[in-house]
Amino acid sequence: MNGRKYKKNIGIIIYTIFLILVLTACQKVPDNVKNNMNRYGNNKLADKIEFQYCNLDELRNSSMENIETADSNICYPDKVDFSQIDNVMEGSFQITSEYTNNQNKYLQLFDMQGVEGKKSIGNWKGMDGFEYEKNEIYPYLFIGENGELSYVSSEKVLDGNTIDQTKEVKKIYLNRGDSINIQINYRDGSLNLSEEISFVKSFIKDNIDIGNCDVDVRTVYIRKDLDGYDVVSMNFVMKYQGMVLDFYSLDVGMNKDGKMMVLQTNRDILVDLHEKNHIDWIFIGGVFQSFEGKAVDKLIDLQTAIHIFEKEMASFQEIKVLEIIPMYVLKPVYNPAEEEYEAAPGNIVNVEPTYSFMIECGVDDTPTGILEGNGVAYVNVNMLTGEVHTDFEDKYFALKNRGNNELSN
Prior knowledge:
It is a single chain. The chain is an alpha+beta fold. The chain has two domains: 43-92 and 295-408, no CATH class; 97-292, no CATH class. It is 20% helix and 34% strand. It contains eight helices and 23 strands. The strands form four sheets. The chain has a 17-stranded mixed β-sheet that branches. It starts with a helix and ends in an 8-residue tail after the last helix. 36% of the residues are buried. The model is unreliable at 1-9, 11-46 and 399-409 (pLDDT under 50).
């Protein structure tokens, strides 16, 4: 792939990586295994779970300390922290439709004043925006009508061949209590990771329009380039009134008319840095301009959600739950029959508040960026209905069939 085409498809490349992950993982589960799953193995729970409910204050104060678990094969995190939730909503976001009105702001931000933009027409209806190329190829900037934003400073930034893949990637998960008191050694000098995170967070909050959402850093990867210097990747999640927007799961399937479509999508912000306080790559998959809905104050409590989760997973052994995240699942409303982009400007995206159980299931071994969905599976329990949606079965058997030694039999 030549440099010019690579740049123009950066957003689609990231999007496609998730699609490939889902489609290759969805190998057929043997019927006898499905039957075993449906019976839930030697489930220690009653067939019918009695739902217990909580209000918002009780949800915020949820703790693992008094949780009763019925399956010793499931390892849970020691702590959960729901204290930052302001409201739990049901309703829908609307995707922005006039984001390119901000183009002068971003041209100045990324030092590309005077660069003439070119209209970009995507592969699907609604995947439109403007491209800017300085010095013929790089730096490169794309601004989509729907709030997609991609800036690349140079050709080396997303080239995995510039990374020393023989060196272990240091992965820092802030929600799991990992320390950010780490020295970063860039080509142009050193600084503490906590300082770099503060710089990037301020850069986003002060300069990037992300609608009515907030942002928070979630994950950091530190890689080595071929000269031994650090390359830092960061994943920032978007939040609406304290609830995290889905950042790691994707579901592709058929609608009632037999058309392939995105049933469940995600939103986050990816950033790469090769030098101190200098963003070399930033990617935003779209922005929501408004929310319409109502607050909910009667929610299935964490104990009930864990009972539901254990019933779902009872036929498996040695499951490690990395995190339990209160999260909005994002379900786009669009028409795939008309070749429409699911994130087209003005489209509606419904939200479903869930307890998302993030399960260790593989490794994210991407040479650049962060794609946590490569290394984990999810079991989502709807906070309002108790309905379960998961990709664990597909990922578990796909990885097991490929001989993944990290998965237990």
